[in-house]
Amino acid sequence: MDLILHALIGDPHGVVGAAIKTSTLFLTAAVLFRFTERRTLAEFAPFDWIAAVAAGAIVGRAATASDTSWLSATVALSCLLVAHALLARLRLVPGIRRFIDPPLKVLIRDGQVDRRNLRHCGLTTSDLEAVLRLHGHPNADGVNLAIFEAKGAISVLRKDNRKDNDAASPRSGLGHGKPRRRETA
Asked: Partners of 113 in the beta sheet?
């Protein structure tokens, strides 16, 4: 019975230490992340995901490890966030950006699906059709370009079907078609 209780509860002093370390690591991570560039999850590049997962692993491992101090975890987390910030800045250099970010892939051009690029992006025709429906297109026919972006999103630009007298409008040539109305609440 003692063996089961020890397996479930462990050392009571260790539990208190883990609670204190977990709380301080969470607060430390919150403060450190406050100084990083803000992005939404939808805008995460692959290296952003790596940094987020690694930060979670550092905090999670150090919180319950009796052989890892708060200071060691804080140094590791700080180094990770500095490396992430440095990589984010290096992306501003075009030659380095090409190495870090995957190239854009055209999935649809003038209504024609590029099956080779679709396959290279790890997408199926069904995946592309679902994205087209989300953008209001029943099929690829009305699409000028569908681009698989570096961050994994798919941009869909519709064909410009307006008459020639609309060509002077400020939005002509952008491939966005007619502007959508904003719904008011």
From this structure: 108
User: Does residue 179 sit within a domain?
Assistant: no
DSSP notation for 68-132: S-HHHHHHHHHHHHHHHHHHHHHTTSHHHHHHHSPPPEEEEETTEE-HHHHHHTT--HHHHHHHH
The CA angle 84-89-92, to the nearest 5 degrees, is 140
pTM score: 0.61
Token readout for 103 is 């190239």
Q: What is the mean pLDDT of each run of 10 residues along the chain (185 residues)?
A: 79 82 90 77 78 92 87 93 91 88 92 95 93 93 93 88 43 42 46
For position 185, what pLDDT does the model report?
Answer: 44
- With respect to residue 177, please indicate whether it lies within any of the assigned structural domains: no
| Two structure tokens written together for 11 | 């050392």
3-state secondary structure of 158: strand
Burial class (CB in 10 A: 0-12, 13-18, 19+), 160: middle
Range of the domain at 148: 105-166
**36's tokens:** 């990083």
Report pLDDT for 55.
Answer: 92
Instruction: Show which of 77, 98, 119 is a domain's final residue.
Output: 98
